[in-house]
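User: tokens in, sequence out, please.
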């Protein structure tokens, strides 16, 4: 358990509290709970709730007048917005200036350019989610050689060592979220039916764990459910095209799993266009659009939620560890969160620290 006196400054929220009220000066803790995921190199997960910076450590960081940059793989979704908010809020508490925020739009070449551009600003630290573990290696190693402290979101470049080339990797419990999503699918189908998987066809640690957990849980826990096809995408906007192809090829399909919310939205669009309200969808990530669908109790029946704001806070704290030379865990994770129609409004508050927007609240079917 974190000692409240040590984290009062570190975790005081600038953007709101879990009860949806105004920000307070009191301490909060990052969520704790069991984590099923292991790190990109098989590391045991350390809970984000174990991270702390004392007031003396915060004072040292503030005195350093440090600069940091944030390099996203993609910044057009609710997850990225919440991550950036968590990072900015925590960096603000630590007196660290954010000098750049970039988005590679899932293009590894663009990410290399982004990192070069950011390095010209002489940041002391970069927080980033590599687009690809292989192609990003050279750019991130160059940053490490220049003495820039690296903290990674969700993925890690190949041939880089925690504590040497980078500080830590922080993620949600992606394996746990995959299990949650499979369990929702199995429960909603009463343990029987035909389903398909829509997965990200790239070497991406996060989605690989989600998909493996979903597949394993369905096969072991719900033997009456058959995965009839697994269809990959490289462009997350292809969900509608893939969804339409799946129901054309498998007209007796009962359910579709999509590895995150944006392709899931496309799948739902295809189902609606073909009047297939009988096919259910489960996914991962509580974006505003899927939250609204859950509130309506429509085609999307449930998901496993990440905690992007908390993840951003944890990543910023780990930058503080790196700047202080404080030993950090190689892999840090936040627990999975099961979200269905029944708890979507409460879950939204838990994920984003604010009440769900009016359109989601008003869409809720009691």
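Assistant: Sequence out:
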């Amino acid at each position: 358990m974190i000692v409240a006196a040590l984290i009062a400054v570190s975790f005081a929220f600038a953007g709101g509290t879990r009860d949806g009220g105004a920000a307070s000066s009191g301490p909060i803790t990052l969520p704790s709970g069991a984590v099923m995921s292991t790190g990109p190199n098989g590391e045991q997960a350390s809970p984000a709730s174990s991270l702390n910076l004392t007031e003396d450590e915060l004072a040292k960081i503030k005195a350093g007048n440090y600069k940091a940059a944030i390099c996203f793989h993609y910044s057009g979704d609710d997850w990225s917005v919440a991550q950036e908010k968590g990072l900015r809020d925590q960096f603000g508490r630590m007196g660290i200036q954010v000098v750049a925020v970039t988005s590679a739009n899932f293009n590894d070449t663009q990410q290399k350019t982004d990192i070069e551009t950011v390095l010209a600003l002489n940041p002391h630290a970069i927080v980033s989610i590599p687009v690809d573990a292989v192609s990003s290696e050279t750019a991130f190693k160059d940053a490490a050689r220049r003495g820039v402290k690296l903290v990674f979101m969700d993925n890690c470049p190949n041939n880089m060592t925690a504590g040497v080339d980078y500080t830590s990797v922080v993620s949600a419990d992606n394996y746990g979220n995959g299990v949650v999503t499979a369990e929702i699918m199995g429960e909603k189908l009463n343990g029987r039916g035909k389903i398909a998987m829509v997965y990200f066809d790239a070497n991406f640690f996060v989605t690989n764990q989600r998909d493996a957990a979903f597949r394993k849980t369905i096969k072991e826990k719900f033997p009456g459910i058959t995965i009839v096809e697994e269809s990959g995408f490289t462009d997350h906007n292809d969900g509608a095209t893939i969804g339409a192809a799946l129901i054309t090829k498998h007209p007796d399909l009962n359910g579709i799993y999509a590895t995150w919310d944006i392709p899931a939205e496309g799948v739902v669009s295809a189902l609606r266009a073909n009047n297939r309200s009988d096919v259910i969808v489960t996914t991962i990530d509580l974006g505003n659009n899927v939250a609204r669908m859950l509130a309506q109790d429509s085609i999307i029946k449930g998901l496993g939620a990440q905690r992007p704001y908390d993840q951003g806070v944890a990543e910023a704290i780990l930058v503080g560890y790196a700047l202080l030379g404080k030993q950090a865990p190689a892999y840090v994770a936040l627990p999975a969160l099961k979200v269905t129609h029944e708890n979507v409004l409460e879950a939204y508050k838990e994920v984003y620290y604010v009440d769900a927007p009016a359109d989601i609240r008003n869409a809720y079917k009691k």
